[in-house]
Amino acid sequence: MIMNYMELMEKSREVMGTKLCKSCPVCDGKACRNTIPGPGAKGIGDVAMRNYDAWKNIRVNMDTITDNEPVSTELELFGHTFKYPIFAGPVGAVGMHYSDAYDDNGYNDILVRGCMNAGICAFTGDGKDPNIMINATRIIKENNGYGIPTVKPWSLETYLEKLDLALNSNAFAVAMDVDAAGLPFLKGCQPPAGRMNTEQLKAIISNTPVPFIVKGVMSVKGALKAKEAGASAIVVSNHGGRVQDQTPATAEVLEEIVKAVDGRMKIFVDGGLRNGVDIFKALALGADAVIVARPFVNAIYGAKEEGIQVLVDKLGSELVDTMEMCGAKSLKDITRDMVR
């Protein structure tokens, strides 16, 4: 018997409990808004809720006076073809923030393999413990390089050590979540970690022979700095609303960043995307792909690889339905006039 999404969430709740993440039917940031440890934020937690709400304030324009042909959701990116323009986001310290049913190594093992089998790809996380990156890249290598290791904004010396692991894994791209500069555990690191200027970022990217993705861009100014530094792609992201109160929602800044970049880099967006309609909206505003993070935690805690397949099938079918109802036969057919 095939599990549905609500059954998956019930199973997740049984494994995870409700002390930290509540495995809510809709992950909107309200129940966990300021729980740290937990999936909330270090401040009042309003940004995660605003991320979610901002997508709901955008509407799609139906148009069914169009050719009745099959819809394709395939995405070609960095030499690979994916079934959907959906990536699983990097999540770290799952044992502390969700439940000790999994540690980061066990979580990433299921995440990378499950996403590859579902036709998409996962970003993996990083942390203070070097073994997290060692194991994440080992898992990516075991899955034919289908994964994107995401490195914290360490010094160049530390980054190069982690880059060697990433390249040995045959990963087709490397990411750095520069917005992680707001995480408490990075403060006081030696060598220093956290914020870096354009020249420092350029030095990191110039040493990286595969596409480099800068995650954590929330302004036109930041996007242009990433481009100047040589990034192949950016992720419009505020780290799930976890690192700084009172920032805009990602949906509020996406379009202006897309216009400024003008096709010179690939653009991902994350933050509060919870269904295929949200994903369609992000693509219509100019994103090339989206990243979904917290729901994959629930999927894995609920049913491991099967849970990932249930979630991906749900998001994918909702995206297909929306494309059919709005007159788009492929991802390139999704245009700005399809949302308002």
Provide a compact summary of the structure:
The protein is α/β, with parallel strands linked by helices. Helices cover 41% and strands 11% of the residues. The protein starts with a helix and ends in a 14-residue tail after the last helix.
Model description:
It is a single chain. The chain is globular, with a radius of gyration of 19 Å. It has helices spanning 5-16, 46-56, 94-97, 104-117, 130-142, 156-168, 198-206, 220-229, 250-261, 276-284, 294-326, and strands at residues 75-77, 80-82, 86-88, 121-124, 148-151, 174-177, 212-217, 233-236, 266-269, 289-292. The N and C termini lie far apart (40 Å). The protein has eleven helices and ten strands. The chain has an eight-stranded parallel β-barrel with strand order 3-4-5-6-7-8-9-10, surrounded by seven helices. Strands 1-2 form a two-stranded antiparallel sheet. The protein has 340 residues and is an alpha/beta fold. The chain has a single domain (5-20, 83-326), classed as Aldolase class I (TIM Barrel), CATH 3.20.20. Belongs to the FMN-dependent alpha-hydroxy acid dehydrogenase family. It holds the Pfam family FMN_dh. It comes from Holdemanella biformis DSM 3989.
